[in-house]
Design a protein that fits this description.
Number of domains: 3
Distance between the termini: 29 Å
Number of strands: 19
Strand content: 25-35%
CATH class of the largest domain: Alpha Beta
Largest sheet: 8 strands, mixed
Bound molecules: flavin-adenine dinucleotide
CATH topology of the largest domain: FAD/NAD(P)-binding domain
């Protein structure tokens, strides 16, 4: 079989599906190839927290701007996806970083100085306001930083909503189809090879998460993306649900409580371990002691795509045309997916790399070709 598409996307996680959606909105024909099921990687095992106060600090430009841009896009994007037919299960519950001991004091309060200036309502709440909002919070909590516009989304629902909306606009999605190689003509990638045959494409985007290094089997290129496994659990306690995300305890729309996450360097497996479950139960109980006898609902594991400097790699592979990379979002892939997708779609449509230049693979000084 010999088929064609304008843009071939390798990987049906949040990054691949977000890009497919933005390209489709621009009227660019694209096809996503996923070797398992959509959202079967990190995107389906995520905690789904969306907000600027969690992992960023003001020194992490330009990643911080990518996150802030996404944060602004989320409410409109969610509306579009709902209108297209699938609820991505987004909730704007606010998030609280709790001060549990004096040691954390300096960092939390130092960050609050710049977070206050973001204009999104981040503020200190004292113990009284904290316990009014979260009556079951541990007695050890001294107060906290509250970010009222933070939210969360369910990874599987979000990815499926993006794929559904993109399909309605003409994109195609293949599941259980592995991309096994690239079609190359001199220094141009002209398509991909799959079990279904060759697909010719003007542009191929590698969005294979922690597996993005696979490119180096096909091109003489070194891709500095490494696996960082993460596990999460869901608990349920009758009559109890936090109002907001507190630390990394995230209330779910179905009444369960998500506790996340482990960080296991260099690990590609998606196995759930007893040790990780115990750690996350302990973490949840530390914040909300009422969870000590909660029902254990489920656990899952995914592999984050990490990079040497913690920032994603976006854009072309120098020395080659017709191919680019969008991967390496580590712990912020859900949060940063909308702005990543807009930037990548803009680059594919115009060939202009200036907006994504700060995320170029060239920053690692690697040579291709
Ligand atoms: C426990 C946990 C908690 C997290 N919490 C948060 C959070 O609160 N907020 C946040 O923003 N982020 C969070 N993250 C990170 C976020 O989930 C990831 O950054 C994001 O999901 C990465 O998306 P991706 O599309 O790059 O990769 P993936 O979701 O891994 O998608 C890549 C896809 O490519 C497919 N693939 C690979 N090779 C091929 C091939 N050859 N052919 C076809 N398909 C292929 C894979 O099967 C996979 O489905 C968390 C992650 C974990 C694990």
């Amino acid at each position: 079989m010999n088929q064609s598409t304008d843009v071939a996307i390798v990987g049906g996680g949040v990054i691949g599906c977000s890009i497919a959606y933005q390209l489709s909105k621009m009227g660019i024909n694209c096809t996503v190839f996923e070797k398992n099921r959509l959202a079967s990687g990190a995107s389906g095992a995520t905690a789904g927290m969306i907000g600027p106060i969690w992992y960023f600090d003001q020194t992490s430009e330009p990643y911080f701007q990518l996150g802030m841009r996404s944060f602004e896009i989320f409410p409109t994007l969610v509306k579009e996806l709902e209108e297209a037919g699938i609820d991505p299960k987004f909730q704007q519950t606010g998030a609280i970083k709790v001060l549990l001991d004096e040691i954390n004091d300096a960092v939390l309060l130092d960050n609050l100085k710049w977070q206050r200036e973001l204009g999104i309502g981040v503020r200190w709440i004292d113990r009284k306001e904290l316990t009014d909002r979260e009556p079951e919070i541990t007695g050890k909590a001294l107060g906290g930083v509250f970010s009222p516009k933070d939210g969360s989304i369910v990874g599987v629902a979000f990815v499926n909503a993006l794929a559904h909306a993109a399909t309605r606009l003409g994109a195609r999605f293949f599941e259980d189809v592995e991309v096994m190689g690239l079609e190359i003509n001199k220094d141009k990638v002209i398509g991909i090879r799959t079990q279904l045959g060759i697909y010719h494409a003007d542009h191929t985007i590698i969005c294979a998460g922690p597996w993005s290094g696979i490119v180096q089997r096909w091109l003489p290129y070194s891709i500095p993306v490494r696996p960082i496994k993460g596990q999460r659990i869901l608990l349920r306690k009758s009559g109890f649900l936090p109002k907001s995300t507190v630390q990394s305890i995230v209330p779910q729309k179905d009444g369960s409580v998500l506790s996340a996450a482990t960080r296991e360097e260099g690990n590609f497996d998606q196995v759930v371990t007893g040790e990780a479950i115990s750690q996350m139960v302990a973490k949840a109980k530390e914040v909300f002691p009422i969870l000590h006898d909660a029902e254990f609902v489920s656990a899952s594991a995914g592999v984050r795509p990490g990079t040497p400097d913690g920032m994603p790699i976006l854009g072309p592979l120098p020395g080659w045309s017709g191919v680019s990379l969008a991967s390496g979002h580590d712990r912020l892939g859900i949060m940063c997916s909308p702005s990543t997708a807009k930037l990548m779609a803009g680059f594919v449509a115009t060939g202009d790399c200036s907006q994504i230049a700060p995320f170029s693979i060239e920053r690692f000084g690697l040579s291709g070709n």
